[in-house]
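FW: tagging you since you asked about this chain on Friday. Here's the raw sequence from the shared folder, copied in full. Didn't touch anything.
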Amino acid sequence: MWTTTFQYSKTRQAIALHVFGKHEAKHQTPVVIYFHGGLFNCGKVEDAYAMANALSEQAVVVCVDYPLAPCVHFPDTIEVAFEALAWVAKHALKIGADVKRVFVAGEQAGGNLAAVVSMLFRDRGISGMRLSGQILINPMLDALQTSKSMGATMDSPCRRAWADYIQVTSNATHPYASPVNSCRLAGLAPALVITSHENPLRDEAEAYAAKLLLAGVPVQVQRLDDGAQRLTADVHPAFDASCQLIRHFIKG
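HL: got it, structure written out here
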């Protein structure tokens, strides 16, 4: 693993990127831009290391140390995420990445960013880059928290996290904040949606998968067993299963 930075264009804040699986330029491999788990106002890039290491034999994995709310919040956070994608396009040769095989991935709040970056790429594009897929692991996709599974959860920390991230109430229904509420999903990259049985985010994630399918987006959905840790922690009983699903998705 090695670390580099780019400067977010709006604030000139340095954003760290942790790169796993550096490959020779002549053997360009798929690249995964990975947004770590947490709830917008918590989490750290090191949480992504287990997954990054597990995938680094097959792909270059770029873990984004995105800033947390409430210090940085919507929409600045999504712009940081999109600029990380643009950095990969610009520096693909340096890291041995194939810009025609780019994936975005993330867990929880990071899953939100991966989904939104897929939307931004569809709407803006990046010259020379092809987004091959989005990998969403128990993603936070509904700022209004209207799903049955979320409603059945008492004192969920997601409520505080959304309040820290969405500081203008009217933004809660914006599709770049709450992708599950979007009415325009056609043209997005194929998706792999991974949930777990008792996670309160499962219903919104699976509802989003259903909406993607209706919009003509290829989708794979898998619900895995639960554990005491995050699904992407290497001690989680379903960690190996989730890694295998992701490897198959990247391989196509």
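FW: The domain at 2-251 is CATH 3.40.50.1820 (Rossmann fold).
HL: agreed, and Residues 76-95 form the longest helix (20 residues).
FW: great, closing this out.
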